[in-house]
Amino acid sequence: MALPTVYGVMASMFFFTSFIWMYLLCTTKNPVFKIHYLMAAVVFVKGLSITFHAVDYYFIGKNGKLEAWAIIFYVIHLLKGILLFMCLLLIATGWAFIKYILNDREKKIIMVVIPLQVITNVAYIIMDTEKGNTLYQSWGNIM
Asked: b/e per residue, 65-79, with b = 16+ CB within 10 A?
């Protein structure tokens, strides 16, 4: 039962830091950009992801393989990946720091890159959950 405990401690640390981050965003007198709230959401969703991963491992250790908790974990993991990648793309384009409106070229790039990232995350989930994942290391290195 050590692995669920480690995941639980890490999840509580992520929740604690996300609450501190939101407290600082709400109480500061300095201007706060919208991207900072998106970053706080990424940290919170990461905490949720780790929490459900801990619950999944707890029930695997107790009852054997349970798919319901794994499905919840992978859905939240996918959401976390999308939020993180969107945050990185918006920072890279200068949104909220330099300009508040994306031009057409940047919108097209985001409309292409985000679905590609979703496909990559779904492929990772499929590779991770397959029973015969002996070639996982080579495909993981490719990704």
From this structure: eeeebbebbbebbbb
Give pLDDT < 70 ranges for the chain. 1, 96-100, 125, 127-143
Distance CA 132, CA 86 (A): 32
Predicted local confidence at residue 27, as pLDDT = 95
Q: What is the pLDDT of residue 111?
A: 79
Give the chain's count of helices (H) and strands (E): 5, 0
CA-closest candidate to residue 87, choices 41, 45, 134: 41
CB 35 within 8 A of CB 95: yes
Query: Residue 35 falls within a domain, yes or no?
Result: yes
Residue 135 lies in a domain: no
Specify if 134 maps to a domain.
no
pLDDT at 113: 80
Query: How many domains does the structure of the chain reveal?
Result: 1
The residue segments making up the domain with residue 92 are 2-101
| Residues 25, 37 contacting (CB under 8 angstroms) | yes
Rg over CA atoms, the chain: 18
